[in-house]
Amino acid sequence: MTVTVFTNPSNPQCKATEQELSKLGVRYVAVDLTQNPSTFEQIKNAGFKQIPVVISPNFSWSGHRPDLIHQLAQSIAA
């Protein structure tokens, strides 16, 4: 399962999300939006209003959401 986290490395919510994913053993690809302005525009145009944005085949959300991070980890482990 591919999990992508669109992030800004200086944002505390992004750091917390990445730390939680790592702690739970969820492998992900981080995309630094400060280095990819066109991707940042695409994320905004898709309706996401805050970062980080987490996208996987079965889940997508924005902001630091420990509840959804745990659901994602459980679905991967199942």
Please give a structural write-up:
By secondary structure, the protein is of the alpha+beta class. The chain has three helices and four strands; from the N terminus they run E-H-E-H-E-E-H.
Give the strand order of the largest sheet, numbering strands 1, 2, ... along the chain: 2-1-3-4
- Largest sheet: number of strands, sense, barrel closure: 4 strands, mixed
Mean pLDDT: 95
Approximate strand percentage: 15-25%
Q: From the alpha carbons, calculate the radius of gyration and give it in angstroms.
A: 12 Å
Please give the oligomerization state of what you see: single chain
Shape from CA axes?
Answer: globular
* Number of alpha- plus pi-helical segments: 3
- How many strands in all? 4
Secondary-structure-based class equals: alpha+beta
N-to-C order of helices and strands: EHEHEEH
Question: Topology, please?
Answer:
Layout: E1 4-7, H1 12-23, E2 29-32, H2 37-45, E3 53-55, E4 60-62, H3 66-77
Parallel strand pairs: 1-2
Antiparallel strand pairs: 1-3, 3-4
Summarize it.
With about 80 residues, the protein is an alpha+beta fold.
Question: Which descriptors apply to this entry?
Answer:
78 residues, globular, 4 strands, 42% helix, 3 helices, alpha+beta
